[in-house]
Automatic annotation (TrEMBL):
Residue ranges of coiled coil: none
Keyword annotations of the record: FAD, Flavoprotein, Membrane, NAD, Oxidoreductase, Transmembrane, Transmembrane helix
Organism encoding this protein: Penicillium concentricum
Keyword Zinc: no
Name of the protein in its database record: FAD-binding domain-containing protein
Annotated InterPro entries: FAD-bd (IPR002938), FAD/NAD-bd_sf (IPR036188), PheA/TfdB_FAD_monoxygenase (IPR050631)
Domain FAD-binding: 18-226, 267-318
Keyword 4Fe-4S among UniProt keywords: no
Any one GO molecular-function label of the UniProt entry: oxidoreductase activity
């Protein structure tokens, strides 16, 4: 028998400037906070009854820190006792120390994460902050603005676009609520209902390994405290160990271990670039939404956002994630056959800067700068088409990169 649904319509006061965010994970809350800081009202719906506490992300890269800095949360993160390190290392498997205990395996290579010296933000290295703490912090900051309301136990079930924006139906038990908003942002995770309702395919593939995430107390007198994140290189028992607190040699610290368990399940995120990417995406999206909602720019700019972020995924995130995984899933005795691990041990500052560049210039991009260049290019766009369709005019192409 079909259940009876009651229906309510939820229309926030400033409906011409409001955004509905689906998902109150760290990315959804980061978006809500950024929008609120710009004066835009944001409603956030979340299907569970409380904020997520799963043992997931701990470490975030420098580019994501610039995003967090723009939201003004770095001082709160530092006040709460979370910390930054210089980088990470690769090690062989943990081994028996011959005295009834275990010790970390020998170090294979280490990488200092460079700062983006061209950015005014004084952030760099890696930030260590458990995902549930980041989520809580963003929730508190966002709701304190008075412009963000988080509705728990509201599951998105339907989306309808109309002339004035979007009607999104959520369900809580037998009650349905329609949220009316100018724009809807789907930040509802890997199994996104928003994506499915909009019929957007999830392109990609799954690895055949399963990761287990557990928190353990570690103590090692020989630990390199500058590089506390450790990739464990092994063909079967590969993994990543990340501390929750600054490590001290010989002192116990709680660490998160994501370790490969057994073949035959789902794709693991590799190298800590999942949430960092989500945060960087959120910054790009909010830059565009501010231009569209507050400055009256065309909503076509959202297509430019989509192009740029898909490009960043294909050029940086996807290959980095794959190579991070393949690098740790290898024979530690032959690890130096990998070009990166081989070169890192004799790396010059120039080499470190060179491998760091894509993380600052392609992973995180400045949407405002891109849009300003594109507006100028729209004047030359017909010429651009022409020079690509007519071989005789090919020399004109040289003008285009100079303008772009
Ligand atoms: C073991 C592990 C370790 C990781 N380590 C790192 C790391 O060190 N660094 C890093 O950058 N990344 C890491 N990641 C990846 C990171 O955890 C994810 O990228 C991150 O959770 C994505 O956040 P999100 O806000 O996009 O989505 P989620 O955290 O998945 O949140 C989705 C939200 O959407 C809501 N939702 C879903 N469906 C609906 C619906 N129909 N209606 C309403 N609400 C809905 C959920 O309730 C939730 O609030 C790790 C992941 C794992 C599993």
């Amino acid at each position: 028998m079909a259940s009876q649904h009651s229906e309510t319509v939820h229309t926030p006061e400033k409906s011409q400037r409001n955004v509905l965010v689906v998902g109150a994970g760290p990315v959804g809350l980061a978006i809500a906070l950024r929008l609120a800081l710009a004066g835009i009202v944001a409603d956030v719906v979340k299907k569970e009854s409380r904020l997520g506490e799963e043992p997931r992300a701990v470490a975030y890269y420098a580019s994501a820190l610039i995003t967090l800095d723009k939201m003004g949360v770095i001082p709160d993160i530092e006040k709460a006792g979370f910390f930054f390190s210089e980088g990470f290392c690769w090690r062989k498997l943990i081994r028996n120390d011959g005295q009834g205990g275990y010790t970390m395996g020998d170090m294979i290579a280490r990488l200092s994460i460079p700062r983006d010296t061209k950015e005014p933000h004084d952030v760099g290295g890696i930030l260590y902050l458990p995902q549930r703490e980041l989520t809580k912090l963003l929730f508190e900051k966002a709701t304190a603005t008075g412009l963000v309301t988080v509705y728990f136990e509201e599951t998105l079930v339907e989306i309808e676009q109309n002339a004035s924006g979007v009607d999104a139906t959520t369900r809580r038990g037998d009650t349905e609520t329609i949220f009316q908003a100018s724009y809807l942002v789907g930040a509802d995770g890997g199994q996104s209902t928003t994506r499915k309702l909009l019929d957007i395919p999830l392109k990609g593939h799954s690895w055949s390994e399963k990761l287990i995430s557990i928190d353990l107390l570690f103590e090692d007198p020989n630990l390199d405290t500058k590089f506390p994140t450790q990739f464990i290189v092994h063909p079967i028992y590969w993994g990543i160990i990340t501390p929750f607190k600054p490590v001290e040699a010989g002192k116990r610290t709680l660490d998160r271990c994501a370790i490969s368990l057994n073949p035959e399940d789902q794709t693991p995120p590799m190298g800590g670039i999942g949430l960092s990417t989500g945060l960087i995406d959120s910054e790009a999206l909010c830059d565009i939404l501010e231009m569209v909602i507050l400055e009256g720019e065309s909503s076509d700019l959202l297509d430019i956002y989509a192009n740029e972020r898909e490009k960043a995924f294909q050029i940086v995130v996807d290959p980095q994630s794959k190579q991070n995984k393949l690098r740790v899933q290898s024979d530690p005795d032959f690890a130096h056959e990998n070009w990166l691990l081989r070169q890192l041990n004799s790396a010059s500052p120039k080499f470190l800067e060179e491998i760091g560049l894509p993380f600052f210039q392609q992973w995180r991009v400045d949407m405002k700068e891109i849009v300003s260049h594109l507006s100028y290019c729209s004047f030359v766009f017909p010429k651009f088409i022409q020079c690509h369709t007519s071989p005789r005019l090919s020399s004109d192409c040289k003008l285009i990169p100079a303008i772009i």
